[in-house]
Amino acid sequence: MNPSLTDTPALSRRGLLQFSLGASAFLVTVGLGASLSGCGPSRSASGFVALRDNDLPFLRAVIPVMLDGSVVAEKLPGAAEATLQSLDTTLAHLSPSMLKLTHQLFDVLTLGVTRGPLTGIWGSWENASVDDIQKFLGRWENSSLDLLRQGHSSLLQMVMMAWYSQAEAWAHCGYPGPPTV
Q: Tens digits of per-residue pLDDT, 38-92?
């Protein structure tokens, strides 16, 4: 049960200043870390239009977990890579502001300073187990923080749209494909 606003203690001016200082320091650290690590929307990975080198380990770890159950196990690696290519194509057609927001989401998920505390994945994404990734996705899906739930929803929608836009995905859900004209 969540407490109502009247049940929570009021934040004092000193407490608010301390919180603001801490939050500002955190954001400056994240921003500086992102700029020093080369996070930037202008550098796409080789063979990709919108996805960057920093995005790929995260997406290659998460996509197979999200596709689990919709693809037979032996076809999962190919399906995950096809989904990654489809996602890149979709992202390349976004408006610059939407692409920037998507890159910011990926930055939060890939930058070590934010990845550990927000996802529970303290090491690299390549070393994360399926169970760890499922826990991260579940934690974000059921978070009390609206921002994390929105991040989960955005990530889920992007990956599922990229997967189900491919003809290989249609058979699993019984879709015969678009009508021929």
A: 554 458 888 999 999 999 999 999 999 999 988 888 999 999 999 999 999 999 9
Q: List, for residues 134-181, the tens digit of each pLDDT value.
A: 999 999 999 999 999 999 999 999 999 999 999 888 887 888 888 888
With a CB cutoff of 8 Å and minimum separation 6, the contacts of 87 are 51, 59, 158, 159, 162
Radius of gyration in angstroms for the set of CA atoms belonging to the chain, rounded to a whole number: 19
| Complete DSSP assignment for 99-138 | HHHHHHHHHHHHSHHHHHHHHS--S-GGG--HHHHHHHHH
DSSP 3-state assignment of 180?
A: coil
Check: CB of residue 30 under 8 Å from CB of residue 97. no
Cα separation, 145 vs 44, in Å, equals 31
Q: What is the largest CA-CA distance in the chain?
A: 68
Cβ-based neighbours of 111, under 8 Å, separated by 6 or more: 30, 33, 34, 37, 39
